[in-house]
Design a protein that fits this description.
The complex is a heterotetramer, with two copies of chain A and two copies of chain B.
Chain A (H helix, E strand, L loop, with lengths): L7 H8 L12 E7 L4 E10 L2 E10 L2 H14 L4 H6 L2 H8 L6 H22 L10
Antiparallel strand pairs in A: 1-2, 2-3
Helix pairs in contact in A: 1-2, 2-5
Chain B lengths: L18 E2 L2 E2 L1 E2 L10 H13 L10 H20 L8 E4 L2 H16 L5 E5 L8 H10 L2 E5 L12 H4 L4 E7 L11 H10 L3 E5 L11 H4 L3 E5 L10 E5 L1 H6 L10 E4 L4 E3 L13 H17 L1 H19 L5 E3 L11 E6 L4 H10 L2 E2 L1 E3 L4 H7 L4 E5 L6 H18 L1
Parallel strand pairs in B: 3-15, 5-6, 5-7, 7-8, 8-9
Antiparallel strand pairs in B: 1-2, 4-10, 9-10, 11-12, 13-14, 14-17, 16-17
Helix pairs in contact in B: 1-9, 2-9, 3-4, 10-13, 11-13
The chains are: A alpha+beta, B alpha/beta.
Bound molecules: pyridoxal-5'-phosphate (PLP) (2 copies).
């Protein structure tokens, strides 16, 4: 809950986002926003033989949400659709280097993952599993 | 500063004796909720330790004492806003409930299909969504007083809005985002000329400036205790007594009745008719004490203090590159609120980095999404002041903002 | 007594360290509201002194801490009544508001002209008047489960009452006048067989005995914090999650929305959809602590303690001439409540004279006028027990009652 | 707020109420009750030449309300209607000997006066002045 969450990797991706933009004719494509803070994020994925061959994100928002999206795109390149659907938030958070992001900002960090899951499940024609509450 | 009263005032507020993240705590989110002085906390504790009991129906000593404390708080609060009678003061949970009370009672009884409700574009969700819902239910129209880029209401089209079908006007006294003080006395008077009944959302005015409901001539008037040094969970509806008397009750149950049989019930007198069930007794008592504390300083002194802080802040922040204050050109500001953007830094990042410096500011839409849209931003960062703030808080915010830039660039 | 836990328990409750009218204070009005242990008072003070802030939308440390405390209290209370999920717990001001919430949402949406609502003759006004009003508004019928002279419900006519048009049943778990524990599990199960949705007024059960909402299978379930050691101004609605999800909101404003434009709004998830505006944060936190305190003793231990006190009291009071306990023959009593008449002394005189002895009992209709009528009295005197009472309190009441006789004859 | 309010005069009138009963053909007649405690009270007054020639009260309730009614009837005998309409609560409370009755019980003591005023104003065809609040 302090500037400690602004690790080098986050700041690096915030200042120089990778894979920013959009893809036409993407097989997987989804977007969402967080009305509370106005974060907006879209992800487009091109598949070849069920494997991610290209991926772009676009959006606006805080350093955490945008850098997390940028980092995520790098992590996903070359993965199979099955791997996308099984990708966990712990994998992403570990890469971000800020496991203790705190409840106020964790939603920012996970927005990109949420969009990925929406798109992947939609592509698979499956229903998005709802988070267990409590 | 203007007054020595503010010299050692932080000592009255126990939260400032803690260090947060290892640093002195700088609280700049009083528009969301205010810190509590010892007087208020002690009054709550005193109730629990000395006369904790249910009120109104008890015959024994502590219940009589608690009832007196509760009703004295009501009188005290009535005098604070210059109500004609303490019986015009209804305790609610917060300003939000008070607005909903009016929407569900007076407005539901008196507004008819085709009538219109006038609001403004700068309303807090709590004074917007209840009217959206009522409008849908009763087929009413909603019309909005627009705002200028500087945050002031555009009032020269009022005559159009106040046409035949306009029956109710609900507007905020002070914007919780921009600090704009709306000229509600004039607006209310014009509304009354058109036979329009009025509600004032005073959640951001009563805490910060002298307010006189008889002078304003508002019909309904709402505010929250927690934004004026008072406890959690207590708010106020003020209404003219004849209105209250002619309204159906809001919630039903114990204490709001005079007589009940299996199939019928008669109501208690006002204001109790609107207070169903065991109320927030400690909350009301604490709010009474908050009013005492504010009176000791003086509301005009508080208003002046905040304006001095505001001017100091504007001056200091003018040194910051790409720093923009929303509604800065507005000449009618409480001085309690500064909403800003800073370079292209996202408000959440600003708030998080400031938190690392032990500075609490708010980032987001401040429950005023339509206003954000009007300002063309998804969110702002907001610093808001109160009695316990001083120029050193602003200096620390200034340093914090420089840190923000150094982290994010 | 059964347990040594109760030996020094009065020390946990600061009010008992005061003398009232120069005598040790004997509090026998816990059915109206209970005294507060230091743990609860301290938790409220801790919030005000250390993390006082608005919740859910704050990014800074103390707001995150306050949000966690508030939501942890919700989980804690959910576990206490064995809710399936903490998201089934909605914070209200009190039990009364919770009943009104259901009347204004689920019941207003789902009940239609000609449907009937089943209540009992022993309901508190808070679980009676809201249904009278709804019945008038929607043209519903009200039918009542009658009671026997001993205070038990007459259940052999249930099949008649639970006929086609019966759609909703709202009944008290424990009578606040007679202490009767109604067999609500059986009644609810029978109601469900007929497709009837149920609300349980648990204001007098949750504080005094183990309660399991999943076992009872209630649809709606309400209680008040102040009757279970918790602070002023906080209550609970428990409801099955699918019900909550399908209900329209109750009050509208900040925090209960997810997205707002000038003319439209979308709602937040449950339970927040039902918590409009800044809630009673300190109240919720304090109620969470009250639950901790009760858990430390154990609800079964508390229930047993009260029954032992009840038996001791009945025994002692049998020596008094013309002393009549209402519902004495009833085999299903919490043991928490004794309502009595005493010669032809008026309850107000009894209570006033006992107050002179520093003994607090309640005199009146206890917000259950229809039940009074059924009992054939305008009012009763009521002594009610809780964790901090012991046999010495009953001895003092006994002596006080002898004093009453000597004053009035 | 204790047994101190049960002064001798109150207990005397409670045990031996004066002027209890009702009058037929009374010129002034009124009743009221206090639903909170179930106190019930009626007063009947016969006038001769505008002067109270007979007075009775009836009712049920607590010692304070019943003895206050009994005491009031004694005080009113021989008074003119004008005097009835001007009779003050202080006069009654002084006679009761318990000026500090406290908010919880003062309503009991003043129920008889309230009934008297209702009846008198009704007889005079005047409107009952409402208590000023606050
Ligand atoms: C059985 C019962 N239901 C409801 C209530 C109402 O509780 P509250 O006044 O806290 O809303 C009470 C308390 O008086 C009660 O005893
Ligand atoms: C202008 C305005 N109105 C209404 C409210 C709602 O106050 P509460 O949440 O206490 O009901 C607020 C506070 O956020 C406000 O700033």
């Amino acid at each position: 809950m302090s500037e400690d969450i602004y690790k080098e990797i986050i700041l690096d991706h915030y200042r120089n986002p990778r894979n920013k933009g959009s893809l036409s004719n993407a097989e997987i494509s989804a977007q969402d926003n967080n009305p509370v803070c106005g974060d907006r994020l879209s992800i487009d994925i091109k598949l070849e033989d069920n494997v991610v061959s290209d991926i772009k994100f676009d959006g606006e928002g805080c350093a955490i949400s945008q850098s997390s999206a940028s980092i995520l795109t790098e992590m996903l390149m070359g993965k199979t659709v099955d791997e996308l659907s099984k990708f966990t938030k712990d994998e992403l958070l570990e890469e971000l280097g800020t496991p203790s992001l705190g409840p106020a900002r964790i939603k920012c960090a996970l927005l990109s993952l949420k969009v990925l899951k929406m798109g992947t499940y939609q592509y698979l024609g499956a229903e998005l599993p709802s988070d267990s509450d409590n | 500063m203007s007054s020595d009263i503010f010299q050692d005032i932080k000592n009255d507020f126990p939260i400032f004796s803690n260090q947060i993240n290892g640093k002195d705590f700088v609280y700049l989110d009083s528009a969301a909720t205010t810190q509590k002085p010892n007087d208020v906390i002690d009054s709550v504790v005193h109730y629990y330790k000395n006369c904790n009991s249910n009120i109104h129906r008890g015959i024994y000593s502590i219940s009589i004492e608690a009832t007196e404390l509760y009703e004295d708080a009501r009188s005290n609060i009535g005098k604070f806003i210059n109500a004609k009678s303490s019986h015009e003061i209804v305790f609610t949970r917060n300003a939000t409930e008070a607005v909903n009370l009016v929407a569900n009672t007076w407005a539901s009884q008196n507004l008819k299909e085709g009538d219109s409700i006038i609001l403004t574009e700068m309303e807090h969700h709590s004074n917007l969504v209840p009217w959206q819902i009522l409008a849908k239910k009763l087929n009413l129209k909603l019309n909005f007083i627009e705002i200028q880029p500087d945050g002031e209401l555009i009032l020269d089209k009022l005559d159009n809005l106040f046409q035949e079908n306009a029956k109710f006007l609900s507007l905020t006294h002070v914007s919780n985002v921009l600090g704009t003080i709306n000229p509600i006395k004039d607006i209310i008077s014009k509304a009354h000329e058109h036979g329009i009944t009025t509600l004032v959302d005073a959640a951001q005015s009563v805490p910060h400036m002298p307010v006189d409901v008889q002078d304003l001539d508002s019909d309904f008037f709402v505010f929250s205790g927690h934004k004026m040094l008072g406890p959690s969970g207590i708010g106020v509806l003020h209404a003219k007594k004849t209105l209250l008397e002619n309204m159906e009750p809001f919630l039903y149950g114990g204490d709001m009745i005079s007589n009940v049989s299996l199939r019928e019930a008669q109501w208690n007198d006002v204001p109790w008719k609107f207070e169903a069930g065991t109320p927030n007794i400690a909350g009301a008592i604490g709010l009474g004490k908050a009013v005492d504390y504010l009176n000791q300083i003086g509301m005009d002194v508080i208003h002046k203090h905040e304006q001095e802080l505001y001017n100091y802040a504007i001056d200091r922040f003018s040194e910051l590159k790409d720093f923009k204050i929303f509604g800065l050109e507005n000449k009618h500001s409480t001085g309690g609120v500064i909403s800003f953007s800073y370079s292209d830094f996202h408000p959440h990042d600003i708030a998080t980095i400031l938190d690392g410096e032990s500075i609490a500011v708010r980032a987001g839409h401040h429950c005023a999404q339509p206003l954000m849209e009007k300002l063309g931003v998804p969110a702002t960062t907001r610093a808001s002041f109160y009695v316990y703030n001083d120029t050193s808080d602003i200096d620390k915010l200034f340093n914090g903002l420089q840190k923000v830039r150094s982290v994010l660039t």
